[in-house]
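Hi everyone,

Forwarding the result from last night's run.
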Amino acid sequence: MTKEKGNNFFIPIVIALILVLVLIASAFSDSVFLAKLANPYLNTLILTIATVLIIIELFLPTYGIAGLIGILLFGVYFASNIQAGYSNWMSVLVFLLGMLLIGFESVIPGFGIIGISGIILVVMGIVLGRGNPAQAVISLSVAAIAGFGSVFILIKTGFNSKLFDKIILRDKQTDERGFVSGDDYSHLLGKTGVALTNLRPAGFVEIDGQKIDSLSEGSMINSGEKIEVVSVEGFSVKVRRI
């Protein structure tokens, strides 16, 4: 069964946490510890862990724990670079504006434009936050690879995120919302077929000679077992054993 996760209240809370963290860090301008964290290797590690934790928060029911830790790490990234003299408040404001736009995308109808703009601003804020664009791009590249890998694993294991779907234009692509998809699977609803692979819960089934990427509605379905399509949402096809 596809598991959806969405925390609409999450973004405002984490924005406040970043502001508090950076304010506290700025108050202790002689913090040697924070300045040492501005090391490019540590910055890369901090950004990577923060990115993965935010993605986990979007997909899994962590009750805000993973997201809060991730945002705190973003705060440490900005605070450490401010302490080391590599950055200033402008980078933080750009980052926060991006986060705010991503938050708007999660609660208002749209086509992902606001969310994509938010992501761009977040990236700009992180680059400005480092002071050295080349080092920032390297750190972001490592974090992005880890992030995309996390998204791929989570989707393949059956988890879903409403915000992620909206940004990539996959969120319930129905006629009422004006979406038209070349791969409309609505005609498969109620049809039967056979599992080509084990579904745990993701896998492949064959319906009318067509190989379909699908998710099991309940327990694992073994390869070769007969299945029936029980729901279709955009590209998401859920099946059950019959």
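The longest strand covers residues 226-233.

Cheers,
N.
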